[in-house]
Write a structure and sequence with these properties.
Blueprint: H1 5-57, H2 65-130, H3 134-142, H4 147-220, H5 224-251, E1 275-279, E2 282-285, E3 293-296, E4 299-303, E5 308-310, E6 315-323, E7 327-334, E8 337-345, E9 354-355, E10 360-364, E11 373-381, E12 384-386
Antiparallel strand pairs: 1-4, 2-3, 4-11, 5-10, 6-7, 6-9, 7-8, 8-10, 8-11, 11-12
Length: about 400
């Protein structure tokens, strides 16, 4: 009997090939979705770390106006971070839902295809069993017209034999992959349930933080005149600092140290060991006063009182100056770039000194009556002010 490869073998080959392509597409899709979820979880870990820092700063419950204003700034940041955290959780749940739906559709299709392959493979085994007599294959080989046809039949029989041996393994591997996919779906459902519980918990915590922020803001709005006076003083101090920096830029030469600063966007170490950005770069609304905007040439980082201040990159200390309202400021040059560290005390460096990333410049200054200290940090490139938050490591 001539082996019926065209009727039985080839359709199975084609279906198994399609089956394996579908499996590969599932694996690739799973990898991409898994990567997106992992990225979200990494971002969430950073957000949770920042929330922990804000909670640490909120432990001091002094009742002065200055301390209350600091608390408003910190808790406003906490609310913002918790909102980002909730958005991240909602996005993760959405991705899990998409992955579950996609995987279930693919599993349904694979189960149908796999069942068809099993049936055809069973027919192939039956066909092989019927032609198990070696004499039949020998007769098929010997009845060829000439050597070329005999060789083709020989190759056909050999490939057919190899094909029969491989199909069992391929079928088993495919079934294993299908079982693994079903296990992944169970794990995804478990993760979705866990994420939903975390989402519910974070909603409660966010509402608590919002209520506390509203309470503090309401109390501070009674101090509108003090807040306005304080704001005007801060604006004048910021302008004085800006003028000193611009004057220095006009007269100073470029440093040969830290010329690779431009390559460290998003990679610079933080200038304090533990802190929260309470006043971001640029123009934005005042945290308490309505219809009032504030402008910041850098960022303000609230930190525990007495925290060390670190150089964020290799460079040269160009100036150590006293600035009214900012106590002592240290300016470090890195090629054409400048980093400015203001509101410091116990400065540990002097003008002309070379520093590395992590060199202690001094300590954060704490105003009388305030719970914690605030470091003002700026980055300049020539006359251009840059957003330091975009340069610091997440």
């Amino acid at each position: 009997m001539v082996p019926n490869l065209y009727l039985s073998g080839y359709p199975v080959i084609m279906k198994l090939l399609i089956f394996r392509i579908v499996l590969l597409s599932i694996v690739v899709s799973q990898a991409l979705m898994g990567q997106n979820v992992d990225n979200l979880r990494s971002q969430r870990d950073l957000l949770l770390k920042e929330i922990a820092n804000t909670n640490k700063l909120l432990q001091d419950k002094r009742s002065t106006r200055e301390s209350a204003f600091q608390q408003v700034q910190v808790i406003a940041r906490e609310v913002s971070v918790r909102e980002q955290l909730l958005a991240s959780l909602e996005q993760e749940i959405s991705l899990i839902d998409q992955s579950l739906e996609f995987n279930q559709l693919q599993i349904n299709k694979l189960e149908v295809d796999l069942n068809a392959i099993k049936q055809e493979y069973a027919l192939l085994i039956q066909d092989t069993y019927k032609r198990r007599n070696a004499l039949e294959e020998l007769a098929f080989f010997m009845s060829a017209n000439g050597f070329s046809e005999a060789y083709r039949r020989y190759r056909l029989l050999k490939e057919y034999s190899q094909y029969r041996q491989n199909q069992g393994r391929i079928l088993k591997d495919s079934q294993d992959k299908l079982r693994a996919l079903l296990q992944d779906i169970k794990a995804q459902r478990d993760q979705k349930e866990k994420s939903l519980q975390e989402l519910e918990r974070e909603y409660r915590l966010l509402e608590n933080s919002r209520r506390e922020k509203n309470r503090l803001v309401t109390n501070l709005q009674k101090e509108e005149q003090w807040l306005l006076t304080n704001l005007r003083a801060k604006e004048k101090q910021a302008k004085d600092l800006e003028n000193r920096i611009l004057e220095y830029i006009r007269t100073a030469s470029v440093s040969n140290l830290g010329t690779d600063f431009k390559d460290f966007a998003g990679k610079l170490i933080w200038p304090v060991s533990s802190g929260v950005i309470v006043n971001r770069f640029g123009e934005h609304e005042h945290p308490v006063l309505k219809n009032v905007t504030i402008k910041n040439n850098g960022i303000d980082i609230q930190s525990v009182a007495g925290d060390d201040v670190f150089a964020v990159h290799m460079g040269e200390v160009s100036r150590v100056v006293a600035i009214p309202g900012y106590n002592t400021a240290v300016i470090v040059r890195h090629g054409t770039f400048l980093t400015v560290y203001a509101n410091m005390r116990e400065v540990a460096v002097k003008q002309g000194q070379s520093v590395n990333a992590g060199t202690i410049l001094g300590k954060v200054y704490k105003e009388t009556g305030q719970a914690n200290g605030v470091l003002h940090f700026e980055i300049w490139n020539g006359n251009q002010k840059l957003d330091p938050a975009k340069w610091l490591r997440p």
